Amino acid sequence: MRKNQIIALVAVVFILTAVFLCPQSLSDRWKDQTLTLVSPFFKGIGWVRFQFRSINEDLKNTDQIKQDNLRLQAENAQLRAENGTFRNLEQENQELKSALKFQRSTSFRLLVARIIAREPSSWWQHVTIDRGTEDGISLDQAVVSTKGLIGKITAVTPGTSKVVLLGDENCRISATLEGTNEQGIILGHPTEMGTVQLKMTFISRTANLEIGQKVYTSGMGGVFPPGLLIGEVVELVPANESGGFGLYREVLVRPLAELSNLQDVFVVLGKK
């Protein structure tokens, strides 16, 4: 193969030398004929070069598209992350606004606290908040959210406090029904559906009971101040199914505070 290339090169050099040494007229004729003969060859080379250039540009374009695609994917991921952060900040901002509005509208002095611990297996029983005796917290103080009562303080350290929730059977609350003078006791227990259900018992047999009635603390137990919203009546227990052999009535109450989704709460320090 290399020998053939050398022979072809020598032939080309010979032809070119002959063209330049011969008379002008003959040289011009040979040049024209030579150009006529080799022009298809050069056209072919030009076509091949064009094709290679086109393929190379296509490869560059493909590589650029890949790079642009990776860059856009990274930007999209960053924008999604920023959007999620903005949504969280917006939600937190709305919660802070709601908390501030609640503090201003309530007739109680409130100390804001954040839940820092809770047991997943007994979330309806108790939580731990980041306030303690150093913040003026003491035993049996009521704890509320912006929606309603959630429980009371049962243990205190200098920097933290334990709150027993409405869902715990040990958190008994003296309560009254909206629009009546009826008194009763709120008892809590979790349901099979993973929610918390409250029962108000020891209501008089002649009580005027209705679905949707609000239930408030009565203040009669000496622990919770009167007027704290607990929940609303969702079911009337038939008299023959109530405790005490029908001597008193019972209703089921839905707590208005979302006990399973608590973050910021308020400790009731007293009246304003």
How would you summarize what this structure contains?
The chain is built from 2 helices and 12 strands; from the N terminus they run H-H-E-E-E-E-E-E-E-E-E-E-E-E. With 272 residues, it is an alpha+beta fold. Helix 1 packs across helix 2 (24-105).
Describe it.
The chain is α+β, with helices and mostly antiparallel strands. Helices cover 38% and strands 29% of the residues. The chain has 3 domains: 1-105; 108-167 and 264-271, Thrombin, subunit H (Beta Barrel); 173-255, Thrombin, subunit H (Beta Barrel), CATH 2.40.10. The protein has helices spanning 2-21, 24-105, and strands at 108-118, 126-129, 142-144, 149-156, 161-165, 173-177, 183-190, 196-203, 214-217, 229-237, 249-255, 264-271. Strands 1-2-5-4-3-12 form a 6-stranded antiparallel beta barrel. A 6-stranded antiparallel beta barrel has the order 6-7-8-11-10-9. The longest helix is centred in the first third of the chain and has 82 residues, at 24-105. The N and C termini lie far apart (106 Å). The model has no long low-confidence stretch (mean pLDDT 78).
